[in-house]
Amino acid sequence: SPPAAGAPERLPFSRVTEEDLAFFRKILPGRTITDPDLVESSNVDWLKSMKGSSEVLLRPQKTEEVSQIIRYCNSRNLAVNPQGGNTGLVGGSVPVYDEIILSTSLMNNILSFDSISGILTCQAGCVLENLSLYLEERDYIMPLDLGAKGSCQIGGNVATNAGGLRLLRYGSLHGTVLGLEVVLADGQVLDCLASLRKDNTGYDLKQLFIGSEGTLGVITAVSILCPRKPKSVNVVFLGCETYEQLLKAFQLCRGMLGEILSAFEFLDSECMRLLNTHLKLPNPISDCPFYIVIETSGSDPKHDAEKLHNFLEEAMASSLVSDGTVATEESKIKALWSMRERVTEALTHDGFTYKYDISLPLEQIYQLVIDMRQHLGGRAKSVVGYGHVGDGNLHLNITSSTKDPALLAAIEPFVYEWTASCRGSISAEHGLGLKKRNYIYYSKPSQAVGLMGNIKAMLDPKGILNPYKTLPDDVK
Ligand code: FAD
Ligand code: MLT
Ligand code: ZN
After folding, report:
1. Residue 101: CB partners within 8 Å, gap ≥ 6?
2. Best exposed site among 67, 259, 288, 305 by fewest CB in 10 Å?
3. Which structural domain range is residue 401 located in?
4. Domain identity same for 313 and 387
5. Is the pTM of this model over 0.90?
6. Average pLDDT of 52-60?
7. Measured from the CB, is residue 95 less than 6 Å from ligand 2?
8. Using one digit for the tens of pLDDT, what is the confidence trace for 274-310?
């Protein structure tokens, strides 16, 4: 199939031969997949916007197998695309051409859990939701949560430095990941799988792999610090008339809820329209221009309820919010969360989706959505804004009935110039993958990009690991 739009030329990697397949089959009997019907779904990304033409899907179970595969591919100059749950949103998780797909799906064992420290060590292919369920039985939770939890894997989460719905409370994976085991491009196993809170013995190498999107090594195991399961969780769904009021509500909420605040998310009325239309999810409150999802997590239900009550009273009295509903019971909590978590899915039913994941100063977040609507006039089907307000992270999404290059040309570079003018980031949490790699200069100085290129060249001199991704085309 032809390369995806914007894809660079195929680099001169070797092509997979019968001899290569014989080698893979010897190491991975029954787990070297070449049936085109079975390889097909691993060639296509979650958004169905990218399609590779790989003919080989490898499914190792052990680190040693990954090491043997990578060592062999390096010696043969064969390109490799590491793949977890394939929920990535920037075209990083699927091949561009015929790269071998190395899936971690069968590397799904929990290796250890320390119920005193809360440190979990597991293989990279463990699905996030399975880890959450395992921990909940032990009175702990994962420090991250995202709408893709049912499919995404912890290795993929680390490789993309996924943010998600709990970052406001528990911080990023750069803080919660304590150790990693990584197979390097030459097949060496780098054992940085420490389970220590503190370790200042030299450079913190694991940090390099967090957010490296499969370009520097294959993550095979993760050690992560998990918080205790909160005894009391409440979710409120509120409506606001203006974005300014939403921000004031955030300020008030931070002050009044303090340490029990665990999420502050938003969606606009356009998102609500898509949830109603495509997923038949009814609005739990009256129609408003903006909606907020606030979650509190604490250790004392009475204390939390009192704090939440006081906050809601104050927010209503000062007219910051115009309507709202509270959930303490699990099924209602889930239902309210789905109004935020399922916006991504609702968008896929609306048409082809152009996704932007932007970090901006809080006051400017929604102005970008307004300016984009005005800039595009009637050219787009929907222009919606939602995201992690608490983290200064806007998800600006634009749909059209079908893929529309003219619309794309109207959106980009407008959106990136707008972002750079506020010193924002053109990728807050999804990464750069294939789609965003050439826009890196809007958020990073060329000196920093050059240094990234040097690191890539040192760790992967032949460039076999996830080629065409993350680094811009002018960095070789
Ligand atoms: P994949 O999609 O398989 O891969 C992603 C990247 O990581 C690719 O570049 C791949 O090569 C690399 N990779 C995967 N596994 C490894 C490994 N073991 N070693 C080295 N490289 C590897 N993201 C957020 O940040 N926050 C959100 O709130 C969020 N919500 C989402 C909601 C939905 C409905 C969807 C579909 C996606 C969402 N995402 C979100 C994006 C995506 O889920 C995350 O980026 C996730 O972390 C990817 O994990 P994965 O296992 O699916 O990785
Ligand atoms: C989210 O916060 O919902 C995710 O990052 C997915 C998306 O941006 O659609
Ligand atoms: Zn997000």
Report:
1. 39, 42, 43, 52, 54, 56, 57, 58, 80, 81, 83, 94, 95
2. 259
3. 351-430
4. no
5. yes
6. 98
7. no
8. 999 999 999 999 999 999 999 999 999 999 999 999 9
Residue 412, helix vs strand vs coil: coil
- 69 Cα–ligand 3 center, Å: 33
Pocket test of ligand 2: the residue of 146, 165, 349, 391 to mutate, having most ligand atoms within 8 Å of its CB, is 146
In this structure, the answer to whether residues 219 and 115 fall within a common structural domain is: yes
Averaged pLDDT, 145-154:
98
Quickly state the pLDDT bin for 2 (edges 50, 70, 90): very low
> What is the largest distance, in Å, between two alpha-carbon atoms of the chain?
74
Q: How far is the CA of 429 from the centre of ligand 1 (A)?
A: 10
Written as six digits, the tokens of 414 are: 């407008």
pLDDT band at 34 (very low <50, low <70, confident <90, very high): very high
Is residue 102 assigned to a domain? no
- Atom from ligand 1 closest to the CA of residue 147: 32
Residue type, 107: M
Q: Where residue 1 falls among pLDDT bands split at 50, 70, 90?
A: very low
Q: Which residue has the CA at smallest separation from atom 6 of ligand 2? A: 344
Return d(Cα 155, Cα 123) in angstroms, integer. 8
Boundary (domain end) residue, out of 343, 375, 392: 343
Judge if the beta carbon of residue 395 lies within 6 A of ligand 2: yes
Q: Is the CB of 307 under 6 A from ligand 2?
A: no
In a domain, 34, yes or no: no
Take residue 277 and report the two structure tokens written for it. 């239309």
Residues 6+ apart with CB under 8 A from 368: 358, 360, 385, 394, 396, 415, 418, 419
Per the prediction, the chain carries an average pLDDT of 97
Q: Quick one: 380 and 297 in the same domain?
A: no
- For residue 385 and ligand 1, the question of a CB distance below 6 A is answered with no
Domains in the chain: how many in total?
A: 3
* 476: pLDDT strictly greater than 80: no
Query: What pLDDT, on a 0 to 100 scale, did the predictor assign at position 4?
Result: 54
Residue 403 maps to which CATH number? 3.30.70.2740
Which residue among 225, 244, 276 closes a domain?
225
pLDDT tens by residue, 90-133: 999 999 999 999 999 999 999 999 999 999 999 999 999 999 99
Q: State the ligand closest to the CA atom of 339.
A: 2
333 and 377 both lie in a single domain: no
What's the CATH code of the domain at 241?
3.30.70.2190
What's 130's domain CATH number? 3.30.465.10
Residue 269 lies in a domain: yes
| Residue 210: CA count within 13 A, CB half-sphere | 21
pLDDT of the residue at 232: 96
Ligand sitting nearest the alpha carbon of 84: 1
